[in-house]
Every structure is written in structure tokens, then in C-alpha cells.
Design a protein that fits this description.
- The chain has helices at about 25-35, 60-70, 90-100, 115, 125-130, 145-150, 155-165, 175-185, 195-205; strands at about 10-15, 40-45, 75-80, 110, 135, 165.
- By secondary structure, it is of the alpha/beta class.
- Helix 2 (about 60-70) links the parallel strand 2 and strand 3 (about 75-80).
- The radius of gyration is 17 Å and the shape is globular.
Length: about 210
């Protein structure tokens, strides 16, 4: 049975399309729970991500099923369909506000280094930086911005916090888009980047073909 959110625990939100969820995502969750004060992580597949408007995205039920296969045996992880069940574009500011209202402690937003580099373009970015804590995870090939670069968009204190909130997680040199291309070509090497139950699900349901 899927665990419910415990409002008393330090909570992280890890959102994305997860199309498909891969070992890099699993590593981020594992290392965040191990290296930070976060006690539970809400993993949330987006319905309509603002940076992928018009892009073809696999159905929500398939992405949710793969997330359960990847994470249900891992304590402290909760899969949420909040954005899938809500109409409109999946803005982090809206989702975070809904979650924060349920929590007794400040929500942490878990993002990749690529997202940090474009954070200033997010809706209500200033409010996100002011109202929530961040955990930044390194991404292959993406260099961290300097505090000076981040301070062009946010105040110095926020820039310092963002650029020191970086954690190390084992990286995989493949993105979800690259994995989809590999799966479409029936490249068996894709299974090295995916949790075994997720690869089996993709094969059984003939996804990405």
C-alpha cells in the first residue's frame, strides 16, 4: 500500500515527467534521503510541464506505474498523482503551495543542476527561492553556475544558499529522451540505465516503439 504523507516529517518534492524513470532518478532520491535532513520524498509526475508544452509525453498511468515499480520498495518515498489529477500546466509554485499547506515543516524542492541554471525563468521563481529550501543534484555535463551568476536573478543570500545546496549523486550518462530513443531502436543497452522492473514493464507494454 502506498504510504501517506506524514505532515510532521521534513519533506522533499521531486517532480518531473519521468518518461521513463531511470537509475539517475533513483540515485537522486537515494542520495537525498541519505545525505540531507529530508525524511520523506514526494515523487510527482507532471501532467503538462511548462518547459515541454506541445511535446509528446507517455500517458500518466504508465509513468505512474513505472514510478511505483522503481520506488515502492524504498522507505520514505511517496508517489503522488496530484499534478496528473489537476487541470492545466504543472507549475512548481502551485504544487509546492498545495503541499506546504499540508506540512508542519518547510518543504524542500529537489531539482537537477540543469534546472538550477534556468530557475530564474520559472513561474514565481523569486517566491520559490524565498519560501522553500532547495536540494540541487549534479547532472552529467552541466556545470554549476557561480554564486555571482545566480545573484543576477536572486538576492545574494538566496544565491549563496542555492549554490551550496548541491549534493553528489551517482550520475548516469543518459537522459530520459536518450533512453526513449534507445528503446525505440530496441537497443538492449537501455536496460543498463533502468530499474529492472521498469525495463520489464516497458517491454511488456511495448512503450516507446
Amino acid at each position: 500500500m502506498q504510504a501517506a504523507i506524514d505532515p510532521t516529517k521534513v519533506t522533499g518534492l521531486f517532480g518531473g515527467t519521468f518518461d521513463p524513470v531511470h537509475n539517475g532518478h533513483v540515485n537522486i532520491v537515494t542520495e537525498t534521503l541519505a545525505r540531507t535532513a529530508i525524511e520523506q520524498i514526494i515523487v510527482m509526475p507532471a501532467a503538462t510541464p511548462p518547459h515541454k508544452l506541445g511535446a509528446a509525453i507517455s500517458p500518466g498511468p504508465d509513468r505512474t506505474a513505472m514510478l511505483h515499480l522503481a520506488f515502492d520498495t524504498r522507505p520514505g518515498v511517496i508517489i503522488s498523482e496530484l499534478e496528473l489529477n489537476r487541470d492545466g500546466v504543472s507549475y512548481t509554485c502551485d504544487t509546492a503551495a498545495l503541499l506546504q499547506a499540508q506540512l508542519e515543516q518547510q518543504l524542500h524542492l529537489i531539482i537537477g543542476m540543469d534546472s538550477l541554471c534556468e530557475l530564474a525563468t520559472w513561474k514565481a521563481a523569486g517566491s520559490l527561492v524565498r519560501d522553500y529550501r532547495f536540494v540541487i543534484c549534479r547532472r552529467p555535463g552541466v556545470a554549476p553556475p557561480s554564486a555571482e551568476e545566480v545573484a543576477r536573478h536572486f538576492d545574494a543570500a538566496a544565491a549563496a544558499e542555492l549554490t551550496t545546496a548541491i549534493i553528489e549523486a551517482p550520475e548516469i550518462d543518459a537522459s530520459s529522451s536518450e533512453l526513449r530513443a534507445m528503446l525505440q531502436c530496441r537497443d538492449k543497452a537501455a536496460n543498463h540505465f533502468l530499474p529492472a522492473p521498469v525495463f520489464d514493464y516497458i517491454s511488456a507494454h511495448d512503450l516507446y516503439r
